[in-house]
Amino acid sequence: MSKFLITGGAGYIGSTTASRLLRTGHEVVVVDDLSRGHAHNVEPARLRRMNLSETDALRRLMERERFDAVVHFAAYIAVGESTQAPELYFSNNVGGSLSLLTAMTHAGVSRLVFSSTAAVYGNPDRIPITEDQPFQPVSPYGESKVMVEKVLGWMDQFRGLRSVALRYFNACGADPESHRGEEHEPETHLIPLLFRAIRTGTPVTIFGEDYETKDGTCIRDYIHVSDLADAHICALNHLMAGGHSDSFNVGTGSGLTVMEVLRAVEDVTGRKVPYVVGARRDGDPPSLVANSDKLRKFLGWEPKCSDIRAIVADAWAFEGRVH
To answer: Is residue 112 part of a domain?
Structure first.
């Protein structure tokens, strides 16, 4: 049994990962300031309420509890918000990560799994995206993740801190075993917004229908949160076995248009989704689809529940519990 510290573990993906680690016999402690996470996602005895800027408090926690590795989810994630307040994103996402890495170094914790993003690729040169494509983010959010990945490279070289960066594509769905799902405020993810439109009758906005895709709407790679959590466990197993630092895409390798997801929601729920079409959003690429061959080959990961109907069904069940 290993002991892991999970930052941002009261959030959507962090709490799902924590739950799956606990079910496989590991010990978990969560650090979260609850500014974006939810206390009900964490057993009170496991929660240490603090902000990542509290370097000394983090160091003392690590020295006292002696963790084998850290899984770092604590970040702001809304692309649009990052363009309105870039300084907030660099302060929290980059500054918080630097504080965490400082505390880890002083406490002698030398393994980290980092929650990164496909936004590091910006408008990619080719689809599906492989990990060797260049960083070219188009938002402060994406840039903040690039900066942390670069810092991790230097920390490996000069501090011996080994890390795995997992570049997520579109996380979605809900974990049926832990009953954790999306509860963002404000909500920016497609499937919960489609559910909200069904629930309230207020049309959801589809941003652009003139892309060069089969129906004119953007294509994205949708990955079930349970499969995403399992990728973190694979990454931890890699580091615990002495594996080297690396970065991996986490996606299914196949894309769906926005309208295909909307139709899947209608099919699963039996309800019509009211929607209107708006203008394209700045910085939205026509297609973002992962090549996840590297993750499958080297870490033995396979997506098991990322069929769009399974994703929607699990998310809809969660929606029924919270509304």
So the answer is: yes
Domain count, the chain: 2
Q: Which residue has the tokens 């960066």?
A: 165
For residue 72, give the CATH number of its domain. 3.40.50.720
Same domain, 241 and 264: no
Residue in 76, 89, 141, 168 annotated catalytic: 141
Q: Among 102, 256, 245, 93, which residue's Cα sits nearest to residue 166?
A: 245
Q: Are 207 and 280 in contact (CB under 8 A)?
A: yes
Whole domain around residue 266: which residue ranges?
190-220+253-322
pLDDT tens digit sequence for 241-262: 999 999 999 999 999 999 999 9
181 Cβ neighbours under 8 A, 6+ residues apart: 12, 173, 174, 175, 225, 314, 315, 318, 319, 322
Peptide bond into 274 cis (omega under 30): no
Confidence band of 179 (pLDDT split at 50, 70, 90): confident
179: CB partners within 8 A, 6+ apart: 318, 321
Q: Is 275 an annotated catalytic residue?
A: no
Beta-carbon count within 10 A of 241 CB: 7
Q: Strand 256-257 vs strand 219-220: parallel, antiparallel, or unpaired?
A: antiparallel
Looking at residue 216, its pLDDT comes to 97
Boundary (domain end) residue, out of 233, 250, 267: 250
